[in-house]
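Quick one, T. Sequence first:
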Amino acid sequence: MRIGHALRSDFPILDQQVNGKPLVYLDNGATSQKPRAVIDALSAYYLHDNANVHRGLHALSMRATAGFEQARTRLARFINAAEPAEIVFTRGTTESLNLVAQTWGTANLRPGDVILATEMEHHSNLVPWQMLAARTGATLRFVPVTGADAEHGLDLAALDTLLTPQVKLFAFTHISNTLGVINPAAELCRRARAVGAVSVVDAAQSIGHEPLDVQALGCDFLAFSGHKMCGPTGIGALYGRRALLDALPPHEGGGGMIETVEYSHSTWKPAPERFEAGTPHIAGAIGLAGACDYLDAVGRPAIAAHDHHLGALARAALAELPGIRILGPRAGQPRAGMVSFAFKDIHAHDVITIADQQGVALRGGHHCNMPLMKKLGLPSTVRASFYLYNTEEEIAVLTAALRKVLKFFA
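C-alpha cells:
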C-alpha cells in the first residue's frame, strides 16, 4: 500500500526547503497539503469549463453544472450518505455547524430545552450553540473531560445524568483537534437517539483520516471541511438526513435557492439547493471530489493505521524529553495522528519559532479550545499533527528540533 514516503512525490509543496532545511510539515490539523491530482482538477475546470452552474444553457455552463453535481454525488458516496440530496455544499465545518444552529436550532428549541456539547469542542462547535442558546432561551451543558491532561477523554458515565429527554441537540467532535482523542461517535449518536435528541458530529479532524460512514454512525448531521482532507480551501459540506433537511427553512436568501419570487414573498427549492444561495464554490467542489478519489485510491483504512502509528510513535518520542506535558491519551490508548504538548516556562510560540528555523512546521496556541485550555491550566500548547505523507523520520527531526528549544532555554 502506498503511504508515507511513497506518496510524497504526489505533493509538490513538500519538495522545498524552509530556512535552509527540508520542510517537515506537521500542521495537518490546521490544513492538509494538496496532491497534484487535486491541483490538476482545479486547473482543468478553470482552463476548460469555467462558467456559472444551474442557470446556463450553453456548453460551458452545462459542463460546469455536471461537474458540480457529480462532485455532490462523489461526496455522498465518500461518507455513504443515502442520496446526494443529503449533501449541502458550504464553506466548511464552521458554516455547516452555523447552518444547523440557525435553521434547525432556531425552529425547534425553546426555553427549558437543553443543548449538550462536550468540554473538548472547537470554538466552531461551541460558539454557534452559545448564540443559539441566547436566541432561544435553551440551556447549554457539557460532557466533561477527565484526567489532569484530559488523558481519559470524555466522562461517558456522566451521560447517564446529562443526556436526558430535555436534551434536544447533542453536538460533539469525532476527533479532538487538541487532544487527539477519538470519541465513540456511533455510541454517542445512539445515546442521543434514545432520548430523542438530534446528533451533530464535527468531523473536521476525522474526514479523510478515518473510514467514515454516516449511516453506520447513525448521525443526524455531520460537518466537515475540504481543506483538511487534501481538498481546496473554502469548500466543505453539511450532511443531513433528508427528512430533516426537507423540514428546515433556508438560512440565506438569494439566487439559486428559489422556486418563485414575487415582490411580497418567495418560495424555496427543495434541499439541498435551498441552502446554497448565490454562486457556489464550483471549482472547490470539483477539487474536493478529486480529493475523495485520491484518498480512496490510497485507502482510508491504511491512512488511519498510518496516522495512528505516527501519533503513537510521536507521543513515545516526545515523552523522553525533560519537562514536557503531553495532553490526551496515554501510551497504549487509541490516539489520532496528533500530539499536543507544553514545556514549563516556554511559550508555545517560542517553540514554534525555533522549530520553524529547523524547517519544522507546527501549530502553537489555544487551537480554538480556549475553555479547555483554561480548564487544563494552560495558556497554550504546541501541536504536531500528521497525515498520509508524513514519515517516521520526520518525527526524529521534530524531536531534534525540540531538543534545540530546550537547549536554547536551558
